[in-house]
Amino acid sequence: MPNLANDPSRKSWINVPEHSDFPIQNIPFGVFITKEDVITIGTRIGDCAIDMGALQQLGYFEGIELTDDIFMQDTLNDFISDGKKTWRLVRNRLAEIFDAENSTLRDRKDHRDVVIFDIKDIEMLLPVHIGDYTDFYSSKEHATNVGKMFRDPENALLPNWLHLPVGYHGRSSTIVPSGVPVHRPMGQTMPNDATQPVFGPSKLVDFELEMAFITTDANVMGEAVPVDEAEDYIFGMVLFNDWSARDIQKWEYVPLGPFLAKNFASSISPWIVTMDALEPFRVESPKQDPKPLPYLYQEGKHSFDIHLEVSIQPEATEETVISKSNFKYMYWTMAQQLAHHTVNGCRVNSGDMMGSGTISGPTEDSFGSMLELTWGGKNPIQLNDGSERKFINDMDTVIMRGYCKNNDIRIGFGEVSSKLLPVIEKRL
After folding, report:
1. Distance separating alpha carbons of residues 234 and 242, to the nearest angstrom
2. Could you identify which of 46, 190, 229, 265 might form a hypothetical disulfide with 182, taking C-beta atoms 3.0 to 4.6 angstroms apart as the criterion?
3. Strands 353-355 and 133-136: what pairing?
4. Which one-letter DSSP state was computed for residue 29?
5. For residue 136, what are the contacts with CB-CB under 8 A and spacing of at least 6?
């Protein structure tokens, strides 16, 4: 089935500002609540949010096999379960409806009034019910930097790292959409000069620049997803700030890995950009040496050229861009991650989320965490207001943005923005 929505020459009758992340070639999916407290599934073109539930009620999806209430739900899970064919049919139809040459909705003010909202007049919600969340550790540069800091610099990567996508099972209950603040976490730490751990607020709260992909129902228990089929089970991607408390993590991670240092909060961008929309931006991944085992081996272009940046904005002042990276630096691809995740028969469901792991590039200004950017706090970053940061301060807002661009179009993810609030006093 052709991917008609990606036509780079297509224009919309909805105004799209220059450099917008959301031209008609994007058509992401999300969930929002209107001023009338109606929750609906929708999409976005330019600065307009589009109520797909209203579109369906008005008959604009006629001819596509959909349940009557598929877009009048508070999550995308059921729509994602319908599979790749349905996703493409719906996205192609949306491109057709909002094409500049199509007058069907354009000339019906009574319909436009119930379908189209100014983005300022709606509130974005978590787009899916995330049943399970796995975080990978798939940037070679990031893993090498961390290994140099905490282990033998000559043997920074652990022996398994080049043979499989390392991951751990995270906590989905504290994943929140952009705009929802998070609190500094409490936990045990072991100060450098101490012999016993102490309990209190983390002093080394960090961001992790990541992306995450959302799956559909991929398999049944006991069945593996082949690496060459894995992309068919990936609905789309979001920006992902996987908050981290480095001092808590340092004390607790042996022998089973991250726990309280990671599960206190993770923030995602609210619009899911589909894999169909990202298709024009495919690139080759870094060369994998040694060659992966057969169940992980891939040829061709299986990564994506997604420009990423991170800013810190102290309260009541301007933001400072502190990192610029790219998703194409990831050593292990999403298909390899999903294939490895299921090779033991682990079931993957609609709405499950897989984090990439921190995305660090080859240069110091492309590192994806404060841990790396300041090299463990040894080299503070100066912000535009003159203040310095080793890690994230209370009342700082961390903003992540991402976009793809070629000679024809630019599409993006918007942003994931979240403020770090002080620890909740009653927990002290």
Report:
1. 20
2. 265
3. parallel
4. B
5. 165, 166, 167, 332, 337, 354, 355, 356, 357
Tell me how crowded residue 365 is: count the other CB atoms within 10 A of its CB. 11
| Integer Cα distance of 208 and 251 in angstroms | 19
Q: DSSP for 281-327?
A: GEEPPPPPSSPPPGGG---S--EE--EEEEEEE-TTS--EEEEEEEG
Predicted confidence (pLDDT) at residue 181 exceeds the cutoff of 90: yes
Compute the distance between CA of residue 377 and CA of residue 239 in angstroms, rounded to an integer.
Answer: 25
For residue 293, how many C-alpha atoms fall within 13 Å in the half-sphere facing its CB? 11
Q: What is the DSSP string of 47-94?
A: TEEEEHHHHHHTTTTTTS---TTTTSSSSSHHHHHT-HHHHHHHHHHH
Tokens for 216?
């559909």
User: What are the tens digits of pLDDT across the range 23-40?
Assistant: 999 999 999 999 899 999
Distance of CA 378 to CAs 194, 370, 373, Å? Answer: 21, 11, 9
Q: To the nearest whole percent, how much of the chain has pLDDT over 70?
A: 99
* Closest by Cα among 411, 27, 402 to 238: 402
Pairing of strands 303-304, 186-189: unpaired
Cβ atoms of 272 and 28 within 8 Å: the answer is yes
Please report, for residues 133, 174, 237, 244, the alpha-carbon distance to residue 166 in angstroms, rounded to integers and kept in the order given: 14, 22, 20, 18
- Give 119-176 pLDDT, tens digit per residue: 999 999 999 999 999 999 999 999 999 999 988 888 899 999 999 999 999 999 999 9
Give the Cα separation of 217 and 234 in Å (integer).
9
Q: What amino acid occupies position 253?
A: Y
Dihedral sign from CA coordinates of 302, 262, 345, 78: negative
The residue behind tokens 């052709």 is 2
- Residues annotated catalytic, as ranges: 142
Q: List the Cα angle 217/220/221 in 5-degree steps.
A: 130
Q: What is the largest CA-CA distance in the chain?
A: 74
> What does the alpha-carbon distance between residue 228 and residue 174 come to, in Å, rounded to a whole number?
32
Which residue type is seen at 305? Answer: D
- Under 8 Å between Cβ of 27 and 15: no
Residues 6+ apart with CB under 8 A from 201: 184, 185, 186, 422, 423, 428
Please tell me the predicted confidence (pLDDT) of residue 152: 83
| 287, HSE (Cβ side, Cα atoms, 13 Å) | 2
Give the other-Cβ count within 10 Å of 28's Cβ.
Answer: 26
- Whose tokens are 């690139």? That residue is 283
Structure tokens at 169: 């099972």
If you search the block for the tokens 């220059």, which residue do you land on? 18
